[in-house]
Design a protein that fits this description.
alpha/beta
Length: 225
């Protein structure tokens, strides 16, 4: 099934409508899948390199610090035990992996949910004619203003576009991504999402069609408009 999405030019004027795959742009957002994908992605960023020393690893003497009996005081062995100053850490962090595996279909469902939620909230706009000949930040800033996006914006292109990247990267709160790298964290952490028509087609190829229900399904070729 297809839904109609408005297409704007760089001045924010509606110039066209395009058909977009309902399965990518018009599903009821699955909040549990979005949350699971968000937490997994944030967990996978963690280095997991925190390391504290136990009583066996911390530097210091190993002699018994006083006699076992006869002193009327507590029994003590090592000066590097956790309850002594400069002693080891008990149950402290050790290097480990925080990686969370996420099923492909859950990840795809989460991305489709995040995209659909943006459409539902009126925070996703399709734009045509966003080509710039040479890097020029003002061009992109004015385009965002025309589209009525004054807060953080995620700009999604079909193919990696270095000129657009150089034009947009200096605008506070703005991030530019090719559609292949679209992810739940970036979708949810930016107020507005601007997609080119090519990005819409690429998103449909990546997360629509057979790939909605099949874990292993080829990505269809996208003919360039």
């Amino acid at each position: 099934a297809a839904m109609q999405l408005k297409v704007y030019d760089v001045t924010g004027v509606e110039v066209d409508t395009i058909e977009a795959d309902d399965a990518v742009f018009g599903i009821p957002p699955h909040h549990a899948a979005m949350r699971q994908a968000l937490l997994a992605q944030l967990a996978n960023r963690r280095a997991g390199s925190a390391n504290s020393k136990t009583r066996g690893e911390v530097r210091g003497s190993t002699r018994k610090i006083r006699r076992q009996k006869g002193g009327g005081t507590s029994r003590q062995g090592s000066i590097r035990a956790p309850h002594h100053r400069h002693g080891g850490i008990s149950h402290g962090p050790k290097p480990r992996s925080f990686k969370q595996a996420l099923p492909k279909r859950i990840r795809r469902l989460a991305i489709r949910s995040a995209i659909s939620a943006k459409v539902e909230d009126g925070e996703l706009k399709i734009v045509r004619g966003l080509q710039v000949e040479a890097p020029k930040t003002k061009t992109i800033a004015n385009a965002f203003k025309g589209l009525d996006f004054s807060r953080s914006v995620l700009l999604v292109t079909g193919e990696p576009d270095r000129t657009l990247l150089l034009s947009a990267r200096n605008i506070p709160g703005t991030k530019i991504l090719p559609a292949d790298y679209l992810n739940v964290v970036d979708l949810l952490s930016h107020r507005g999402v601007v997609m080119t028509v090519e990005a819409v087609r690429r998103a449909e190829a990546l997360w629509g069609g057979e790939r909605v229900n099949k874990r292993i399904a080829p990505v269809p070729e996208v003919t360039r408009a």
